[in-house]
């Protein structure tokens, strides 16, 4: 009796006991559903979190002035470096060829009044200077109108992007602010677009009371201000962050003429610490989910072993006949192991389908994540199904292979 014949006999036996096979496969399916479902849901949640933080600029790094030390360290006065200039950042933006999109920006004031006709806002509006990439890099959307262009940014055009709170204070409902002119810091600006409302989320609500003007325009209307310029680089693929930062560091050192062996004369930092912490939490959840799913599957495997033991007892005479016809203990073991593996794979396929559906449904309802296909967990489920089949089926198969053919033939 070769392996092919064993497979045929195993499938034949499964078909002869459809209800028992279904119940056994259902046990395995529940375990696999638990495992795949939990891990798929966690992956969907992680995917949603990654997208959310990407839209908030989490996959970015910034280049700014070196943080100046206060006093001395170990009896030595800490070295201070000249500020990063606008021209240096402009050169960086022009020459940067790494992954990601760079954007130069600065904060002009946080206490501005904005006027339109007879209406005036509270004196707590934020005015920022930015280039044409600023909204994209910081993850903000234009609700109405358009962002300003690269030419408007470089030529110092008097155009502005306005947050929702500013619009609510200056304009009546159902009145489009696009094209209207507002007074800001002694100059007239034409609104070319509005920034989509961000709401009260921590760290994003201030964009609703922000006016963004082109960087060059900011330098024109406030030439006496000692701006602190920064550049942010947004990297779409988080796996390219380290590479992008290395390229940016090398280019900026060249622009700043930092000597070999000298520390950076600027600060380069990644804005992803919160995303990393949440990623660590979901990693721990993934481990916990795997443990819960594995324990559920362990219970299902014990049930499978019990049913296979019953099957051996019921088929004692059949085993005796096979041995009398020349079947070796190895072939008997193979037959029962194949049956166990086939049952677990039947349950595994059902568990994968249900687990993927339940996991995606959970992550979609809770976090509105996209549908994902958990290829890794599907592969893990198939492998675990085979392992469970081998482990659960070995003891019954070993018992069957050790039966005496004479005693088996006399068994009632």
What would a concise description of this structure say?
By secondary structure, the chain is an alpha+beta fold. Helix content is 55%, strand content 17%. A hairpin with a 2-residue loop joins β10 and β11.
Layout of SSEs?
Layout: H1 3-16, H2 18-55, E1 60-65, E2 72-73, E3 76-77, H3 86-95, E4 101-112, E5 114-116, E6 119-120, E7 125-130, H4 134-138, E8 142-145, H5 150-155, E9 159-162, H6 164-170, E10 181-184, E11 187-195, E12 210-214, H7 215-221, E13 230-234, H8 241-256, E14 266-270, H9 273-314, H10 316-324, H11 329-367, H12 375-401, H13 405-409
Helix pairs in contact: 1-11, 2-9, 2-11, 2-12, 3-8, 9-12, 11-12
Report on this model:
- Belongs to the ABC-4 integral membrane protein family.
- It is a multi-pass membrane protein.
- The chain crosses the membrane at residues 21-42, 287-307, 336-359, 371-395.
- GO terms for molecular function: transmembrane transporter activity.
- Residues 291-405 form the ABC3 transporter permease C-terminal domain.
- By secondary structure, the chain is of the alpha+beta class.
- The chain has two domains: 3-53 and 276-409, no CATH class; 60-271, no CATH class.
- It is built from 13 helices and 14 strands.
- The protein has helices at residues 3-16, 18-55, 86-95, 134-138, 150-155, 164-170, 215-221, 241-256, 273-314, 316-324, 329-367, 375-401, 405-409; strands at residues 60-65, 72-73, 76-77, 101-112, 114-116, 119-120, 125-130, 142-145, 159-162, 181-184, 187-195, 210-214, 230-234, 266-270.
- The strands form two sheets. Strands 1, 4, 5, 6, 7, 8, 9, 10, 11, 12, 13 and 14 form a twelve-stranded mixed beta sheet that branches. A two-stranded antiparallel sheet has the order 2-3.
- The two termini are 25 Å apart.
- Residues 200-205 have low confidence and may be disordered.
């Amino acid at each position: 009796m070769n392996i092919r014949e064993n497979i045929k006999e195993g499938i034949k036996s499964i078909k002869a006991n459809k209800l028992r096979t279904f119940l056994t496969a259902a046990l395995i399916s529940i375990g696999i559903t638990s495992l795949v479902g939990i891990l798929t849901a966690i992956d969907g949640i992680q995917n949603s979190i990654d997208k959310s933080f990407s839209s908030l600029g989490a996959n970015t790094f910034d280049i700014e002035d070196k943080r100046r030390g206060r006093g001395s360290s170990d009896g030595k006065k800490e070295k201070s470096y000249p500020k990063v200039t606008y021209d240096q950042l402009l050169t960086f933006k022009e020459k940067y060829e790494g992954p990601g999109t760079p954007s130069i920006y600065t904060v002009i004031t946080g206490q501005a009044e904005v006027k339109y006709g007879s209406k005036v806002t509270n004196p707590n509006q934020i005015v920022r200077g930015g280039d044409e990439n600023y909204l994209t890099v910081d993850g903000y959307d234009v609700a109405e109108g358009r962002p300003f262009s690269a030419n408007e940014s470089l030529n110092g055009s008097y155009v502005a992007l306005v947050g929702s709170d500013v619009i609510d204070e200056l304009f009546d409902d159902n009145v489009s602010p696009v094209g209207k002119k507002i007074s800001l810091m002694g100059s007239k600006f034409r609104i070319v677009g509005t920034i989509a409302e961000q709401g009260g989320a921590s760290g994003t609500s201030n964009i609703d009371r922000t006016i963004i003007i082109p960087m060059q325009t900011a330098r024109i209307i406030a030439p006496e201000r000692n701006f602190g310029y920064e550049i942010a680089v947004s990297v779409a693929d988080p796996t390219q962050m380290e590479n992008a930062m290395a390229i940016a560091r090398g280019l900026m050192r060249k622009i700043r003429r930092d000597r070999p062996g000298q520390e950076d004369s600027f600060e380069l930092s990644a804005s992803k610490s919160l995303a990393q912490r949440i990623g660590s939490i979901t990693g721990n959840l993934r481990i916990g989910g795997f443990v819960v799913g594995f324990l559920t599957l362990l219970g299902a495997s014990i049930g499978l072993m019990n049913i296979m033991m019953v099957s051996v007892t019921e088929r004692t005479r059949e085993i005796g006949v096979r041995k009398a016809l020349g079947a070796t203990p190895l072939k008997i073991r193979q037959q029962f192991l194949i049956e166990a593996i086939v049952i677990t794979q039947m349950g595994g396929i059902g568990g994968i389908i249900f687990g993927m559906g339940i996991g995606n449904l959970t992550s979609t309802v809770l976090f509105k994540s996209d549908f994902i296909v958990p290829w890794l967990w599907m592969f893990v489920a198939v492998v675990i199904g085979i392992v469970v089949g081998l482990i659960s089926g070995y003891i019954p198969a070993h018992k069957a292979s050790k039966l005496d053919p004479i005693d088996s033939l006399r068994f009632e």
